[in-house]
Every structure is written in structure tokens, then in C-alpha cells.
Write a structure and sequence with these properties.
Strand 5 and strand 6 form a beta hairpin. By secondary structure, the protein is an alpha+beta fold. It is built from five helices and six strands.
């Protein structure tokens, strides 16, 4: 697997499409401690293409936890299921926020497996969400 560079124009398209939020945990780039990156949903090691349809915008934490996985175990049913796929799935069909928007709750097997595998409720994220919620800038608005 080579270190294929993603063209700046493609990188810009991906980040704009995601409204500058991680497509998994919804972290906003403007408040992130590390720059968000363009990831591959289907990893290059599994012949995933560097094309707009296979590239999500992801925070470093989600990117690291996802690595080259495309499926994970649903903690409720113990079944292996696909991870959330930002191009095929709508976030709100698989996830919701708790009352104070600090925790992401998986609504489906895909959602639960993704919350667990990518650790979408990492301690630092929960703390940041709590502060941003108090200032009225979290959660980011979702549009279709």
C-alpha cells in the first residue's frame, strides 16, 4: 500500500460535504485539538478507491479506531455487522444524542457496533461536547 496523496481539491470537497465535522462522531473541525483528515471508508489495503464516494472526513480518534475495519460486533446481539458507512447510511437513522448531547447512542446494530468500535464517546469528546453544548454550539446542525 503506497502513500497516495489526496489532491487538495478533493480534500476540500470531502470536508465541505461533511460541513467540517467528523462524519462518525460529529466533532467539529473548528474545535478539534488535531486536524480532521480524509479517510477511506473501504481501506486502500482492501482495494478501496481514492474517490469522493469512498472518502469521509474523520477526526483522528475515529480514524485511528476504525483503522482498516469495515465491520464490528454489535454489543447487544454479538453479531458481526458493517460499520456505519457515511455514503450509504444516514447518521440520524443509526445514532441519536442523549438528553444533553454528550453521548452518541446507537439506535441500530450498525450504530451500536460503530459507537463501540470507534469509541464515539471517548472521555475527551464527552467533556468537550458538554462545554460546547453549554455555549450552544453543539450538536452541529444536521441537514439532508
Amino acid at each position: 500500500m503506497g502513500s497516495e496523496r489526496i489532491a487538495p481539491a478533493l480534500r476540500r470537497q470531502v470536508s465541505e460535504r461533511a460541513k467540517y465535522c467528523c462524519e462518525y462522531c460529529k466533532s467539529q473541525a473548528r474545535f478539534a485539538m488535531q486536524a480532521l483528515s480524509v479517510d477511506h471508508i473501504e481501506p486502500r489495503s482492501r482495494r478501496g478507491k481514492t474517490s469522493l464516494s469512498n472518502l469521509p472526513f474523520a477526526c483522528q480518534g475515529c480514524n485511528n479506531h476504525k483503522y482498516k475495519r469495515t465491520q464490528a460486533r454489535d454489543p447487544l446481539t454479538e453479531q458481526m455487522v458493517p460499520l456505519f458507512h457515511p455514503r450509504r447510511h444516514r447518521w440520524r437513522d443509526h445514532f441519536t444524542w442523549n438528553a444533553d448531547s454528550t453521548l452518541i447512542i446507537g439506535l441500530t446494530a450498525i450504530g451500536r457496533a460503530t459507537v463501540d468500535a470507534l469509541q464515539l464517546n471517548r472521555e475527551g469528546l464527552v467533556n468537550l461536547r458538554r462545554i460546547l453544548f453549554q455555549f450552544g454550539v453543539h450538536p452541529p446542525t444536521e441537514e439532508d
